């Protein structure tokens, strides 16, 4: 459970090879952004997000069907600004799973 003293929130990272030129890149999938995070998890979430500073590109996947999608985007923008990483290029992906 996340509330039991974890130092960071789990992430998954994979090495991806681009077939055409053989270049590799890391793709990291983090936990979805959580609004109103309990104070006990704020430090863990920030520690996870600080890894973003090493990124060349951020892919922000948004659930287009969520009624608060715009507020979620604004919340993520605020955190990225606080982490001083808002200058990293970002690809916004609107996702709808039916």
List the helices and strands and how they pair.
Blueprint: E1 11-17, E2 24-30, H1 39-49, E3 58-63, H2 69-82, E4 90-95
Parallel strand pairs: 3-4
Antiparallel strand pairs: 1-2
Enumerate how many helices there are, as a single number.
Answer: 2
Count of structural domains: 1
Reported for the largest beta sheet, the result is:
2 strands, antiparallel
Q: Would you list the SSEs in sequence order as H and E? A: EEHEHE
In total, the number of strands is 4
CATH topology: Rossmann fold
Using only C-alpha atoms, the radius of gyration works out to 15 Å
The unreliable regions are 1-8
How widely separated are the two ends?
28 Å
> Structural class of the helix and strand makeup?
alpha+beta
Protein name: GTPase HflX-like
Pfam families: MMR_HSR1
Domain Hflx-type G: 1-98
InterPro entries: G_HFLX_dom, GTP-bd, GTPase_HflX, P-loop_NTPase
Description:
The protein is of the alpha+beta class. It has two helices and four strands; from the N terminus they run ββαβαβ. The radius of gyration is 15 Å and the shape is globular. Helix content is 26%, strand content 27%. The protein has one domain: P-loop containing nucleotide triphosphate hydrolases (Rossmann fold, 3-Layer(aba) Sandwich), CATH 3.40.50.300.
List keywords for this structure.
98 residues, alpha+beta, Rossmann fold, 27% strand, globular, ribosome binding
Put the structure in a nutshell.
The protein has helices spanning 39-49, 69-82, and strands spanning 11-17, 24-30, 58-63, 90-95.
